[in-house]
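Re: [ENG-882] Designed sequences occasionally contain unexpected residues at chain ends

Forwarding the minimal case from QA. Structure tokens:
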């Protein structure tokens, strides 16, 4: 299985993935979506809605090179046309993985997400705010 699809599976198991149009819209309205994606074979209407959802909450948006069938296999949810990654670190890692295969399409987006969130490679939301202890 593709490494990026595995990452989506991990995000789903961790509760950090919104799957399907309604869940993605709810996550965007709540300001929880870090990145919103559409399957390559999603309908034009689904892509427009996902793009609007991402704009609403300031998340990055992109069409990804996976089909609804592939996303359904990873998420266990039929054949979703859209999904959102809720954790900025995971979203950045997913985009960096996509950028390895297509840097001109996904590289700038990965950089933009890192810039917006302050999450760089190797950092995660859980470790970014921890205090150092005096020694």
């Amino acid at each position: 299985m593709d490494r990026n699809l595995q990452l989506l599976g991990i995000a789903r198991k961790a509760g950090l993935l919104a799957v399907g149009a309604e869940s993605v819209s709810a996550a965007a309205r709540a300001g929880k979506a870090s990145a919103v994606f559409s399957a390559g074979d999603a309908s034009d209407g689904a892509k427009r809605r996902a793009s609007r959802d991402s704009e609403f909450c300031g998340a990055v948006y992109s069409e990804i090179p996976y089909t609804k069938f592939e996303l359904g296999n990873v998420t266990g949810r039929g054949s979703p046309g859209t999904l959102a990654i809720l954790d900025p670190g995971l979203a950045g890692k997913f985009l960096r993985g996509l950028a390895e295969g297509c840097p001109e399409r996904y590289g700038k987006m990965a950089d933009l997400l890192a810039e917006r969130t302050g999450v760089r490679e190797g950092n995660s939301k859980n470790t970014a705010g921890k205090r150092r202890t005096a020694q």
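QA comment: On inspection the terminal residues look reasonable. The helical segments are 3-13, 21-29, 44-57, 68-75, 88-101, 103-117, 125-128. Proposing we downgrade this to a documentation issue.
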